[in-house]
Amino acid sequence: HHFPAKYEFQKANSMDTPAFRLDNLRQQPEDITVFMCGKCRLPLGDSSDWDGRIRKEGVVHLNAVSENVCCPNDSEGVISSFPNETYCVFQILQCKGCGSPIGRIYVSTPKTMDSKVDVFILNLSAVTTYTLGSAKKQVVPQYDIPLTLEKCHEFEQDIKKCKQILGVLQRKVETLQSQLESQDSP
């Protein structure tokens, strides 16, 4: 199976209590965490589709993933051997770029676990993350900022002003020195 760029699933029961979502706490829209393949760094999904929890099993649940997530064409359902997952069937999720296994998607569960069906479950051991906007929060030393023609023109104007001020100050100092010298002479 190949999933479209934002393959989303509807919850079967709209009466479900809303899950905690990271975006409820997000102050700025640019603070989105991108989940990337740990091997080739292709983006797999982001926190806008995440329920905001890291499970004790070391996984995150996403309601949608990028087109870089796929199931192998020859993939058959795998009967789960995870604790408390009797009768659960899932398919392995892979990174389309490098073929690394990155998680699973449940296709069949007992009724008590239906909330896991059609949810993309990514293994944290197989992914890496990057928070958008985190680079803006780092202080860039002034000398690392690129120099543009516009900035060069501004610098030239500032240098001209400084030279004019220095010229005026130099003349004033010379005037004061000559006045002091004339007072000191008999």
Automatic annotation (TrEMBL):
<dbReference type="GO" id="GO:0007059">
    <property type="term" value="P:chromosome segregation"/>
</dbReference>
<keyword id="KW-0862">Zinc</keyword>
<dbReference type="GO" id="GO:0000775">
    <property type="term" value="C:chromosome, centromeric region"/>
</dbReference>
<protein>
    <recommendedName>
        <fullName>Protein Mis18-alpha</fullName>
    </recommendedName>
</protein>
<keyword id="KW-0597">Phosphoprotein</keyword>
<dbReference type="GO" id="GO:0051301">
    <property type="term" value="P:cell division"/>
</dbReference>
<dbReference type="Pfam" id="PF03226">
    <property type="entry name" value="Yippee-Mis18"/>
</dbReference>
<dbReference type="InterPro" id="IPR034752">
    <property type="entry name" value="Mis18"/>
</dbReference>
<keyword id="KW-1017">Isopeptide bond</keyword>
<comment type="function">
    <text>Required for recruitment of CENPA to centromeres and normal chromosome segregation during mitosis.</text>
</comment>
<dbReference type="GO" id="GO:0000785">
    <property type="term" value="C:chromatin"/>
</dbReference>
<keyword id="KW-0832">Ubl conjugation</keyword>
<dbReference type="GO" id="GO:0046872">
    <property type="term" value="F:metal ion binding"/>
</dbReference>
<keyword id="KW-0137">Centromere</keyword>
<comment type="subunit">
    <text>Homodimer, and heterodimer with OIP5/MIS18B. Identified in a complex containing MIS18A, OIP5/MIS18B, MIS18BP1, RBBP7 and RBBP4.</text>
</comment>
<dbReference type="GO" id="GO:0005634">
    <property type="term" value="C:nucleus"/>
</dbReference>
<keyword id="KW-0539">Nucleus</keyword>
<feature type="domain" description="Mis18">
    <location>
        <begin position="32"/>
        <end position="132"/>
    </location>
</feature>
<keyword id="KW-0131">Cell cycle</keyword>
<dbReference type="InterPro" id="IPR004910">
    <property type="entry name" value="Yippee/Mis18/Cereblon"/>
</dbReference>
<keyword id="KW-0479">Metal-binding</keyword>
<keyword id="KW-0132">Cell division</keyword>
<keyword id="KW-0158">Chromosome</keyword>
<dbReference type="GO" id="GO:0034080">
    <property type="term" value="P:CENP-A containing chromatin assembly"/>
</dbReference>
<keyword id="KW-0498">Mitosis</keyword>
